[in-house]
């Protein structure tokens, strides 16, 4: 594998994931940008940063195949702590964690693969616990809400095992004898719980935990169970019957001393306001710890993610399913079509035979055009996404041609021996026809991962016979067509596109 380029497209939310993972390549100031071209020296971390980006704005172009071997975790417990706060417990192996850090869960939905980061509330070597705020129409919330659901609507979405990227983040507990003050709101309480679990009983602790309503407060019994801990619960919009602390967390921190270690976790506005209040009260900046945890953005409409971000729904899964369906289905269909005289039946505006042949031609035209188009128009992300369909469409095209050839051999074995005679290869027409058929067989047999691994560098060289298949097939088809431009036009256009791509000409940067 080789990393060709890495860039950050518009839409960065300054979450600092990329800088935390790969500071050699990325700097967030104020949004993320690439600061080095040493991509291959930092390939693993670079690919991790791309995969963990919550808004998919990091784009890495690579040659060859490579898959990050992420660990897997299995959901073993799911319950609601509040009407919109979910506790999820995952089992795993050899989990390594520093209190305060987070994990990045790798998810997928109709739009595309994506990741979301969540702070860890509790952990041990074989499990970790997350608390998640469920927001309507947010992708991560919708995905986690459906985990373990058992109804007909989510029958195909049920998933109990999920990939994750190990714990990250510099917002971690400092092991000093100073008094620890934890200030948090909502599900940002999670890293504070993990820190409290790691602190010895003789360390004095203050927890200031706030929410809008009483029902937003959770883990109260757990917080009360920590020894030598003073708990201050705050509600900014209390009911008439509420007897606890009213208003915001900033109203209950004025008695802290400058020697206290203060850990703040919440939405950015809350963090800024608490830090500002502490500094105005004379607190030392060196004893204030927080991280700029950016709120997730509301997802764009599906049509926008398809046309502007190139995120095709389920394209990888459909590609994999279709490869097997077409490779097996076309030969069976064609054989029965011949034996049952289906080929002359009308299908839409043409007969079945013409339809299959046209499908074969336009499939290979797409295969030949999409890669140079992606190189010439790099700003149109959709072209780059469509490259994944090349194998599927190549198999469709080659399967049709090979099916026609094999059916002839099965029906009349003499045509198999005649295929290798001098007569069949002597004339230019016969030569081009045989080259098209032979390369179709070669491409069909080698368009799989097994061949790619076994052939090594020769696999890519063999795949270049697709040029021979494309040109010879088009020339032969043109001899039977009333409109030869349908075949000669794409041949000329493809060569123009490939010349522009090889010259590295970019028409829309």
Summarize the structure.
This protein is of the alpha/beta class and 509 residues long. It has helices spanning 17-21, 43-52, 139-146, 190-198, 220-225, 268-280, 302-307, 315-339, 352-376, 381-386, 390-411, 414-418, 422-426, 428-446, 449-455, 457-463, 466-480, 485-502; strands at residues 2-8, 26-28, 32-34, 58-63, 72-82, 85-91, 102-108, 113-124, 127-133, 161-168, 180-185, 205-211, 229-235, 245-246, 261-265, 288-290, 346-347, 350-351. A hairpin with a 2-residue loop joins strand 5 (72-82) and strand 6 (85-91).
Salient structural properties:
509 residues, alpha/beta, Alpha-Beta Plaits, Elongation Factor Tu (Ef-tu), domain 3, Rossmann fold, 4 domains, six-stranded antiparallel barrel, six-stranded parallel β-sheet, 18 helices
Total discrete domains: 4
* Count of individual helical segments: 18
- Helix % is 40-55%
Which outline best applies? elongated
Q: Tell me the fraction of residues in β-strands, as a range.
A: 15-25%
For the terminal residues, how far apart are their CA atoms?
25 Å
Which strands sit side by side, in order, in the main sheet? 5-6-9-8-7-10
Protein structure class: alpha/beta
* Average pLDDT, all residues: 82
Alpha carbon gyration radius = 30 Å
The low-pLDDT segments are: 152-157
Q: How many strand segments?
A: 18
- Let me know the largest β-sheet: 6 strands, antiparallel, barrel
Question: How would the blueprint of this fold be written?
Answer:
Layout: E1 2-8, H1 17-21, E2 26-28, E3 32-34, H2 43-52, E4 58-63, E5 72-82, E6 85-91, E7 102-108, E8 113-124, E9 127-133, H3 139-146, E10 161-168, E11 180-185, H4 190-198, E12 205-211, H5 220-225, E13 229-235, E14 245-246, E15 261-265, H6 268-280, E16 288-290, H7 302-307, H8 315-339, E17 346-347, E18 350-351, H9 352-376, H10 381-386, H11 390-411, H12 414-418, H13 422-426, H14 428-446, H15 449-455, H16 457-463, H17 466-480, H18 485-502
Parallel strand pairs: 11-12, 11-15, 12-13, 13-14, 15-16
Antiparallel strand pairs: 1-4, 2-3, 5-6, 5-10, 6-9, 7-8, 7-10, 8-9, 17-18
Helix pairs in contact: 8-11, 9-11, 9-17, 9-18, 11-14, 14-17, 15-16, 17-18
């Amino acid at each position: 594998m080789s990393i060709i380029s890495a860039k950050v497209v518009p839409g960065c939310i300054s979450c600092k994931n990329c800088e935390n993972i790969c500071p050699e390549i990325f700097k967030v100031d104020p949004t993320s940008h690439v600061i080095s071209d040493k991509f291959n020296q930092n390939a693993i971390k670079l690919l991790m940063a791309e995969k963990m980006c919550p808004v998919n704005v990091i784009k890495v172009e690579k040659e060859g195949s490579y898959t990050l071997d992420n660990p897997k975790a299995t959901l073993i417990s799911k319950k609601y702590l509040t009407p919109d706060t979910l506790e999820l417990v995952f089992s795993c192996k050899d989990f390594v964690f520093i209190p305060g850090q987070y994990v990045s869960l790798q998810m997928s939905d109709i739009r595309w693969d994506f990741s979301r980061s969540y702070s860890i509330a509790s952990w041990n070597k074989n499990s970790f616990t997350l608390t998640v705020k469920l927001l309507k129409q947010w992708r991560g919330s919708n995905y986690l809400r459906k985990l373990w659901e058992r109804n007909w609507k989510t029958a195909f979405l049920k998933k109990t095992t999920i990939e994750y990227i190990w714990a990250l983040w510099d917002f971690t507990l400092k092991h000093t004898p100073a008094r620890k003050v934890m200030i948090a709101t909502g599900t940002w309480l999670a890293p504070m719980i993990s820190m409290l679990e790691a602190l010895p009983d003789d360390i004095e602790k203050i927890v200031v935990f706030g929410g809008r309503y009483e029902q937003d407060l959770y883990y109260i019994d757990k917080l009360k169970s920590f020894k030598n801990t003073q708990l201050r619960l705050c509600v900014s919009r209390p009911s008439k019957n509420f007897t606890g602390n009213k208003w915001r967390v900033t109203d209950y921190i004025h008695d802290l001393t400058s020697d206290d270690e203060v850990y703040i976790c919440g939405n950015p506005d809350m963090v800024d306001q608490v830090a500002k209040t502490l500094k105005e009260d004379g607190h030392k900046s060196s004893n204030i710890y927080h991280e700029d945890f950016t709120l997730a953005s509301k997802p764009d409409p599906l049509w926008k993610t398809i046309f502007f971000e190139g995120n095709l729904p389920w394209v990888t899964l459909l590609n994999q399913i279709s490869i097997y369906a077409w490779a097996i289905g076309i030969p069976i269909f064609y054989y029965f079509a011949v034996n049952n005289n289906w080929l002359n039946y009308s299908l839409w505006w043409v007969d079945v035979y013409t339809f299959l042949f046209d499908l074969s031609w336009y499939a290979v035209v797409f295969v030949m055009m999409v890669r140079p188009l992606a190189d010439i128009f790099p700003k149109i992300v959709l072209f780059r996404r469509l490259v994944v369909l090349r194998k599927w469409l190549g198999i469709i095209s080659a399967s049709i041609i090979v099916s026609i050839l094999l059916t002839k051999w099965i029906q009349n074995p003499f045509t198999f021996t005649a295929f290798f005679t001098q007569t069949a290869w002597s004339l230019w027409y016969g030569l081009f026809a045989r080259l098209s058929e032979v390369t179709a067989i070669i491409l069909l047999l080698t368009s799989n991962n097994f061949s790619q691994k076994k052939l090594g560098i020769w696999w890519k060289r063999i795949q270049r016979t697709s040029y021979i298949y494309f040109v010879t097939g088009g020339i032969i088809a043109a001899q039977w067509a009333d409109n030869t431009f349908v075949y000669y036009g794409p041949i000329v256009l493809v060569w123009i596109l490939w010349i522009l791509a090889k010259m590295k000409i970019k028409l829309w940067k």
